[in-house]
Write a structure and sequence with these properties.
The structure is a homodimer of 201-residue chains. Chain A is mostly helical. Chain A is built from ten helices and no strands. The structure holds a DNA duplex (30 and 30 nucleotides).
Chain lengths: 201, 201
DNA sequence: ACAATAAGAGTGAGCGTTCATTCAAATATA
DNA sequence: TATATTTGAATGAACGCTCACTCTTATTGT
């Protein structure tokens, strides 16, 4: 009647199929043929929605980055103790990885692709620790936490988050289930608050 | 008739060339031709010392894993405070990444290859947090540090180490120099000991 | 002379990408 | 309403290129 024809969620279908296949086989072994088959679509069709194979991965990273960024921003502007904010970030990530393991398999595995210029989406992702840095900075300014080296501590926290999610996914693959993340956010926040010292406070 | 095989350090030459090329281009784009050229050797020669391309990467991981494992074991059996041991581990890694950035570019980037069965060397590497776990367990038993979830805390610490090294390498590539690791081990050990609380102890 | 090792052009499989063709729905025509 | 024409999404066989790996020949060492 008007507009284009029916592309009823074809891109969506390709997107979901790509996540499934790339998560299972890795980006390198995830051929266009496999993704097309999983999406129930012809090879050529994929190229109606994506420029090339790299573009698919980039799109995944972009999309998922936006989600996280928005959540980070929301948390950031709350008026809470910095460690409460950090706990929200931890819980968000841990809930997401439980709900969407495939996505995180990709984010964590393919994040370190070499090609410099391509994959803008990946480099964006590397900016997430920046949000943590700002939360810490704000907390120091408001004298809620002690002063520290922001770059180092924020990188360490983000690294810890990633490592725990990786650990969770490995356990999931090896044993079919995982309790790694069950108390992880409490444990980490507690560690960040009082450290490992035995003295009571 | 001197030895069973090998002429003067051909395997060593290939090994070093492989590290250089893989670090620069990533494993996928590091072709055998390039490695052979960098080693000043013919393609066929490489196959006298390595079964296939994967075997080269595996060998790198194996070799480098052994180095770290031995160092971890040495530290582990010292009679020191657990956080002193941890600091030694941090310092060792940070010194190594400064001295041998190419090796760590590979260890950190290619560590998350998908192929399950292959790359035994990589899965070995994933065992390193275990040593941290044991150091912590020992420290708790001897009442040097408070009790905590070993799996979570050790994974977090190892993740923090990796993240800081990655950060260092990125800065190095972007700006040509990096001070990220200059005070990193002190900062992290301090964080592990007293956390971010403002209260004095 | 005889292994042992090096050499590197050749080979074939795999895969990303293209493009001529198809065909059902949308629109125009009568 | 019935029929002709246009449109462009979908298709998938074919293409071309990139490697990992092989194999025959050359070189080196004893």
């Amino acid at each position: 009647m008007m507009e284009k024809k029916e592309q009823v969620g074809k891109k969506e279908a390709v997107y979901k199929a790509a996540i499934e296949v790339i998560a299972r086989e890795g980006f390198h072994d995830a051929t266009i043929d496999k993704i097309a088959a999983a999406a129930g679509v012809a090879v050529g069709t994929i190229y109606n929605y994506f420029q090339n194979k790299d573009d698919i991965l980039n799109f995944i990273f972009q999309t998922e980055y936006e989600k996280r960024k928005n959540y980070y921003l929301e948390i950031q502007k709350k008026d809470r103790h910095p460690l409460v904010k950090l706990k929200l970030i931890l819980s968000m990530h841990f809930a997401e990885v439980k709900e969407n393991p495939d996505v995180y398999r990709i984010l964590l595995r393919e994040r370190c692709m070499p090609r410099i210029c391509h994959f803008e989406g990946i480099t964006r992702f590397e900016g997430l620790p920046r949000f943590i840095e700002e939360i810490l900075a704000d907390g120091i300014k408001k004298e809620k936490i002690r002063s520290c080296n922001l770059q180092i501590v924020s990188a360490a926290i983000f690294g810890a988050i990633e490592a725990l999610m990786s650990r969770h996914l490995v356990e999931l693959e090896e044993k079919g289930h995982s309790k790694v993340l069950d108390n992880a956010s409490e444990e980490i926040v507690n560690l960040l608050w009082c450290g490992l010292s035995r003295e009571k406070r």
